[in-house]
Write a structure and sequence with these properties.
The protein is α+β, with helices and mostly antiparallel strands and 628 residues long. It has 3 domains: 1-20 and 228-383, no CATH class; 38-131 and 138-193, no CATH class; 387-625, Beta-galactosidase, Chain A, domain 5, CATH 2.70.98. The chain has 17 helices and 21 strands. α6 runs parallel beside α9 (172-192) and α10 (209-223) runs antiparallel to α11 (228-247). The longest helix is centred in the first third of the chain and has 24 residues, at 76-99.
Amino acid sequence: MKLTDFITISDIKEHVFGKAVEGRIFPELADREAWMSVPLVLQQAWVTQAESYLNYEWPSLRATAFMAYFEEGSRQPYDTVESERRAALCTLLIAECLEAEGRFLREIINVVWLICEQTTWCAPAHHYLSLQPGELLSDIEEPLFDLTAGETAALLAWTSHQLKAPLDAVSPLIRKRIRVELERRIVTPYISRDDFWWMGFGEREVNNWNPWCNANMLTVLLLQDMEPERKLLLVDKVLRSLDRYLEVQFEDGGCDEGSTYWARAAGMLFVNLELMYRASDGALQVYDQPLIQKLGQFVYKMFIDDAYFVNFADGAAIASQDYALVHLYGSRINDDRLRALGQHGFHHYQVPDRTRKGNSFFQEMISLLSFTSIQSEAALPPPFIQEAWFPNLQVMAARQKEGSSHGLYAAIKGGHNDESHNHNDIGHFVVYVNGKPFLIDIGVETYTYKTFSPQRYEIWTMQSGYHNVPVINGFEQKEGRSFRAEDVTYEHSEDGVRFGLNMSQAYPAEAGVRNWHRSLTLHRGAEPTIELREVCSFAEPTDGIQLHMMSTQKPELINPGCLRLQDRDHNQLWLAYDTEQWEAAFELISVKDESLTRVWGESLYRIQFKLRHTVRHGDWTFKMTERQ
């Protein structure tokens, strides 16, 4: 689909720019009734957070902190301070809107001024966008529009819009400075350049950057004053750019960046759609379109239990979804299961503190203004769907029983090794028991310079050797689109589901594998079982085969041919294998990276099944059950 087939420039001119935007997206500062309808407990929590920034000693953004990314590979010295400034401004802005007494105004002005004085709003890691990349510092004459610049611009636009009267009462130069910086850093680069890859007007395929950056551009357009014809020119480019994103979306709604990135992919597309919907008083919408609905549904189809989601690629198994946005998406497309996921997560909503940042003003406002209505809704059952199949994405997920997280859960993927946020993981699978992880996808460590460099696959978490796939004659899978799954199949019935693929093409020719057909079957019924079958053949006889499985729990050899994994809540996974064919061992992996310890703690285990005999053909089965 194309947005431009449903929303035209004349539509925008009539329904959006033909009337004042005030009050159509969020309540204006003067609408005290709307702001006072926010529950008192939330008002107090936001105000308390904002008070921590009164008389705050604002940290500086040093040139050496910017340079640290290029010299040391660390994003933290610069990004931490930069994100703290935005988090502080968002908190102060919301608190001032709630209180409307001017108590936070001076610190708002302080941080606005600091942000406007920054040499760049673009993160050091994204300065490859420059026409002359490679410098240790940013060129003030070349403003770059990346994710961070967009988030900063949208927040400043909201600040100027919401606090127009009180800021102008202090000095009209404050909002003038915001207008000047938005024009110089965001509007002009957006309209004058087509070579930012995320726009989609070049050869590189777009990802979540596209809807994310465009949502921020659209926010600036809706909230800032500029010539009407120029606004129309810009919004036309936004719509055409979003069409490039929609062009590369799978018809099945699958997100190859994983469920963790859903909030920044389909979720940010939804922000664009919702901005247009609200700014037009509901006149402009595409929520009835099948692709928009399927993109939204992906996130609950990957939901396992609690905060766990299927997390292939760079995603984390514990995904911090924006549940109010999930709920609103479900309401707009009339999908109760998506609404149910939003309900499920939003019951744990808390006002973000200074150690938990990241959401935009738009996202925080959706949570704030929908809190009462979501909490008062009749409870919907959690979306524990029995199975999900994405033929374009080549991902399957299935659980033992519809409507319950009890029992076995498995997910497996095909695809290729050049996906967005790719790991070399063709044929990789995960297994959960009673909603708890046992055989896992590790995820990714904290991003550094190396993460998105040519050395990406030197990082252990990206390598197939640390996924649940074989190492063949010493060779792991390789990166690149040509390294892919073939002959992918999916079968399902009430008795179970089966996913099959040939993953021999994921390995280099030197591995000597002619065929490796893996199938994963979830058998339901009286004795639920997950069966992993490997059927393979090789160019020469070999005993150089290892099967790896990454586990959260220390394996215990209870009986010959049977490993037990048990968590602290006494959930168990029993893993049976043929001792005549395989020798089992495991190694402890100490986890130190904060992004991983937050999910898994400080220890993981890599189970290693090593082939005992030389073979030219193999046909092996591993069985997993909740009970022995």
